[in-house]
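Anyone opening a protein record will find just a pair of labelled lines. With that in mind, the following record should read easily:
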Amino acid sequence: MYVNFAKTTSLLTILAIISLIIVSGCNKEKVNYDNLANCLADKNVKEYGAYWCPNCARQKDMFGSSYNIIYERGVYIECDPKCVKNEKGNLPMACRGMEGQPQLCLDKKVEKYPDWEFPDGTRLIGVQELNNLAEKAGCQI
């Protein structure tokens, strides 16, 4: 019986690499950002955004499930004027239950999303690394 060791070795090497990629993806550590989200709310930090904004979606993904706290505690402010209740008192589904505050966004001169506003009046525009938000707000991750 003839075994081609070169092909067998190559195949085993490829399988080993694929296995390592799969295992490393599965072992990715999930970090809980609830403390950061609660701290941002406690410090009265605001994030102005729009439901259709891809950068807002990227920012949301960085928080993972902890972003629910951002919504629930009023950190996130929806700026799209389409997110208003209709005559039946319902919001468009795209607004994810967030009623828009377009006048507030205009008053705050929000021009790009996300726009993070801190109690001292300073702002950070665009997607922010969570450690930058934490440092700026005086929060721990």
